[in-house]
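Provenance

Sequences were taken from public entries as deposited. Structures were produced by running a predictor on each sequence independently, with no templates supplied. The record for Tyrosine-protein kinase ephrin type A/B receptor-like domain-containing protein from Cryptomonas curvata is shown for reference.
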Amino acid sequence: METQAGTGLDMIHANQQCIQCQKGYECTQASVPCIECTPCDRGFYKDSEFENGTEWIEESCMPCPENTYRDQFGASERAGCLLCPVLSSTSGAVGQKSKTDCRCTRGTYQIQVPGNDSPCLLCPRGLICFQNETVLPVVEGSKWDILPGNFFRMEGNVFSLIHCPTGYEVLNLTHEGQECSECTAGYECTSSIGLKCTPCSVGKYKEYKSTESCRACDEDTYNINISSTSRSDCTSCPKDATTKGKIGQTSKSACSCSNTSYLDPIGTNQCIPCPKSAVCIKGQLPIFGERYTA
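Predicted structure for Tyrosine-protein kinase ephrin type A/B receptor-like domain-containing protein:
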């Protein structure tokens, strides 16, 4: 009479006995006679043989935990389940059979390179990433390209910020820190290919961080400084002097008195009425008597 082994046991004909399946093997044929132990499937492992006194206890292969995988048969220990690469996971699934079952986590991207392992990379601040090569720029009009990662001392290819739209400058000291940043107070970027914000020129100012350009000082004022951050940096012309409707003036010389007055040379910053016996052409010092010819 032939004896059949139970589930989890291997039948040895030569010795007419059933033995426990060894590590990395199982016998799970519940509906038919279990004749031979088979290796644990990919994504599974078995790292022990149980015995309770003289009775063998059935044990099947166990699935590899989440965030691990096993791409070969017959794993005899849990360490045979390989960890997913950095910034990737199995999204809670167990028993995974391939590294491709490890997907990049949220807030990352992955640029596939045929024949190479493609790492999951943290999304730069200037992009919205979707765990693959699909990305969207945070600032519309910013230009990104796929370039070698050696600029950031990284292997493989990465998304690199090339330039920004008007009103922004490129920040790219680190890979994750890449973004288009609005120009701060006192600075502007008027180019359609924004790379670096530049100081407001003389005669102008900008009070807040924004994409706006620097503003010209009002008429009857002037500003001799660059990178001005306040309207108050625009100095008023001397009393009764005017810029004759012009804005954005860069020096005190742009302020002139009328033809009936002149600017006090001593430094009181006032327009003094021209003497009756003289004329003051364009607000300059008086010209007396025969020295004046029209």
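The CA atoms of residues 44 and 63 lie 4 Å apart.
The chain has a mean pLDDT of 85.
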